[in-house]
Amino acid sequence: MVHSGRSWARAAQDIREGIANRELWGHLGWQDIKQRYRRSVIGPLWITLSMAITALGLGLLYSQLFGSPIGTFLPYLTVGFIVWNFILGCLTEGSDTFISNEGLIKHLPAPLTVYALRTVWRQTLMLMHNMLVYLVVLAIFFGPLSTPGYTLSQGGGVPQPGLSWTIVFAIPAFALIALNGAWVTLLFGIISTRYRDIPQVIGALIQLLFFMTPIVWPVDILTKKLGSGDWKLLLIEANPLYHFIQILRAPLIGSEQSWHHWAVAGGVTVIGWALAFVAMRNYRARVPYWV
Question: Which of 7, 111, 118, 290 could disulfide-link to 25, CB 3.0 to 4.6 Å?
Answer without folding.
Answer: 118
